[in-house]
Design a protein that fits this description.
54% of the residues lie in helices and 2% in strands. It has helices at residues 15-29, 35-42, 49-54, 62-71, 76-89, 94-104, 108-113, 115-123, 128-135, 145-151, 158-170, 198-217, 234-256, 282-288; strands at residues 174-176, 182-184. The protein has a two-stranded antiparallel sheet. The longest helix has 23 residues, at 234-256. It is globular and about 65 Å long.
Length: 290
């Protein structure tokens, strides 16, 4: 719509979402703007390239990232940030993502735009922080760091437990009640539906490590590890992911309604491809490139 504000590139942690936002802005503000016009700005022959990038069907090389930045009217530090954001989003390992995130964090506007994320980063910095927060729901919860350290599997040190309590209180996730006991300040924490920050990726890696350790170290009656290998359409894959999301919400509600919690558990869900996507037929390919 006319009068809409230009998207701030520093407010994005996903360059594809930024490109989509910029396209919508330019389409509303600049007469005749189109995918073809963007391609001309970027010096690209394909008139549909921006759409393919936004849809995740194409990645950007370093050179192409620079062209896209210029086509989005980014210069100086903003251009540099966009190019680094592309590298961050296309990183293949958690180590690469962490390294690139550190480079993004050098940009002050990005740090200012992501201030609220820092608390979430601290909360997910160690696997036992969410575990201790859930442990606080037990009726016999004791804020003695030595007691807490012994309750976790694997056990942590009393020093780690003490620092964890201090951090959870600082973040406002635990608070002292009228009776002097530490309790949760809210029932549920979720990372939301948006793109995951690098700290969430690291947290998932930690929990996958914990799952592998449980497979080797816990008796079968205390764990449930199973898997399925399926061949489905892209549409059915999207449906499966949505059903997993709905099931996660159902489990959260179930735990919230449990008035006598006894044990902290971790439930992981993973869906990932074991084969490449099928090539589109000739007719389908023609319909996607206009």
């Amino acid at each position: 719509m006319p009068g809409s504000s230009r998207p701030n590139v520093y407010a994005f942690a996903d360059y594809r979402r930024y490109l989509a936002a910029y396209y919508e802005y330019a389409k509303a503000e600049q007469y005749g703007f189109s995918f073809r016009v963007f391609s001309r700005r970027a010096g690209i022959r394909s008139s549909n390239y921006l759409r393919l990038v936004i849809d995740g069907e194409r990645n950007l090389t370093r050179e192409m990232a620079g062209r896209f930045a210029e086509a989005c009217e980014l210069a100086g530090g903003a251009r540099e940030f966009f190019c680094e954001l592309v590298e961050y989003c296309q990183s293949k390992t958690a180590q690469e993502r962490s390294r690139m995130y550190e480079r993004l964090a050098r940009h002050r506007p990005f740090r200012e735009a992501r201030r609220l994320e820092s608390a979430q980063a601290e909360y997910h910095s160690q696997w036992y922080l969410p575990a201790i927060r859930e442990l606080a729901r037990r009726a016999d919860f004791c804020s003695d760091p030595k007691w807490i350290a012994r309750q976790l599997q694997p056990a942590i040190s009393a020093t780690q437990a003490k620092r964890a309590l201090e951090l959870l209180c600082k973040l406002g996730l635990l608070a002292q009640g009228a009776d002097g006991r530490l309790t949760q300040t809210s029932e549920i924490i979720t990372t939301g539906p948006g793109p995951l920050g690098h700290h969430i990726y690291n947290y998932h890696h930690m929990m996958l490590d914990r799952a592998a350790a449980a497979l080797d170290g816990l008796p079968r009656e205390e764990r449930d590890v199973s898997c399925l290998t399926l061949c489905v359409s892209q549409a059915k894959l999207a449906e499966l992911k949505e059903r997993i999301r709905s099931f996660r919400q159902e489990l959260l509600r179930t735990a919230e309604l449990d008035d006598s919690p006894e044990r902290v558990v971790q439930i992981n869900f993973q869906v990932f491809p074991l084969s490449v996507a099928a090539e589109p037929s000739e007719g389908e390919a023609q319909s996607t490139v206009k």
